[in-house]
Amino acid sequence: MKKLVAVLLVGLMLLLLFINMFDGSLEFNKMDLADVDGNYYAKNPIVSNMVTSVVVDYRSFDTLGEVTVLFVSSLGVAFMLGGLTTRIKFKHDDSFFLRIGVKVLFPIIVIVGVFMFVHGHLTPGGGFPGGALIGGAMLFKYISDSKYRAKISAFKVLEGTMGSIYVLLGIVGILVGNYFLQNILDIGELGNLISGGLIPIIYVLIGLKVGSELTGIFDHFMNEEV
Amino acid sequence: MHIVGIVLMLIGVYGLITNRHIIKMIVSINVLEIGLNIFIIAVGYGENTIAPILTKSNINATNFADPLPQALVLTAIVIGVGTTAILLAVARKLYQQYGTYDLTEMEGK
Fold it and tell me: Nearest C-alpha of chain B: how many angstroms from A96?
């Protein structure tokens, strides 16, 4: 009975959305290509990857807020699971193949992650996926070895330092230039590795910060009560 | 593509309405979120547009997809990871206290 009601309710929502979408009142189906803002960013390029120039230059303040949200969520996880100290015990023994495979794969994944956030302004990717790759590599270490513990205090220091440098760069923007997080450095030639002023620096900071935050979250989930 | 996003969102809403298991509800929230992200990306995409990355071959092109929705979705994905982590931590706390993930059984205790 409950499932029937749910199906009817969801079907009604679907019907309403479709009616609104295709009778022209919301006009999702008629997109004016000349109105697309992408051309503005293409005519005023800061770096090759326009998504990066939106995320780290035009809307850098939003990104600072976003990084803060991730920091607060890792703080919340630490607050809720921080009392647990013993490493969790898996129901199965450590797999030999997984352990050796992780030993081979770990440096490769970390290098791909670092490549991704260093080249975030030229190719698809950037600080967040690169940081997530580093966090995933640490998760591999945790699931392959039942006694493994990362040096979580070092990751906490790294995370705090990176966040503080991001805020300090914003304040330097006020002091040297005109507004918070202004891109004060020389933008350079489009498409070079060292170009875009502050953008690669900030993306490296974000990548390291996201990687250490995700590692902290994984570490807290890998603990259990005695 | 709009339709794929909307259908995924509605699958997520259906899962949230019908399930009483906390982990399944978290998965439903994630499905809803992925649908929303696909929908926002689809809004920024027009016919015959290309990826908004300048290279030597497309430096003079004018048919780039709108990068703004993609940047917003990047933000949304990261915040989704944060909320999922918090939700899973709450779920583990509840399991420690009640010994079950099911909301109906929790009400009985």
Answer: 29
Q: Tell whether B53 is covered by a domain.
A: no
Structure confidence at residue A112 (pLDDT): 95
Best mutation target among B37, B54, B79 (most A Cβ atoms within 10 Å) is B54
Q: Is residue B94 part of a domain?
A: yes
Contacts of A49 in chain B (CB under 8 A): 52-54
Does any domain span residue B36? yes
pLDDT of residue A24 exceeding 70, the answer is no
Q: Do A69 and B70 touch (CB under 8 A)?
A: no
Residues A28 and A44: their CA atoms lie apart, in Å, by 27
The dihedral sign for the CA sequence A145, A70, A212, B41: positive
Under an 8 A CB cutoff, do B77 and A9 touch?
no
Q: What is the pLDDT of residue A71?
A: 92
Residue B89 sits in a domain whose CATH number is 1.10.287.3510
Q: Return the higher-pLDDT residue of B67 and A19.
A: B67
**CA–CA dist A66, A70 (Å, integer):** 6
A33 interface with B at CB cutoff 8 Å: yes
- Decide if pLDDT at B11 tops 60: yes
pLDDT at A84: 79
State residue A32's pLDDT score: 57
- The arithmetic mean of pLDDT across residues A11-33, rounded, is 66
Lowest mean pLDDT among A78-92, A129-143, A167-181, B29-43: A78-92
Chain A residues whose beta carbon lies within 8 Å of the beta carbon of residue B54: 42, 45, 48-50, 190-191
Chain B contact for A191 (CB, 8 A cutoff): yes
Residue B86: inside a domain? yes
Residue type, B61: A
Q: How far is CA A160 from the centre of its chain?
A: 16
- Parent domain of B25: 2-45+65-108
- Given its phi and psi angles, is residue A93 left (phi above 0), alpha (psi -120 to 50 degrees) or beta? beta
Q: Tell whether A128 lies on the interface with B, counting CB pairs under 8 A.
A: yes
Number of folded domains in chain B? 1
Inter-residue contact A163 to A71 (CB < 8 Å): yes
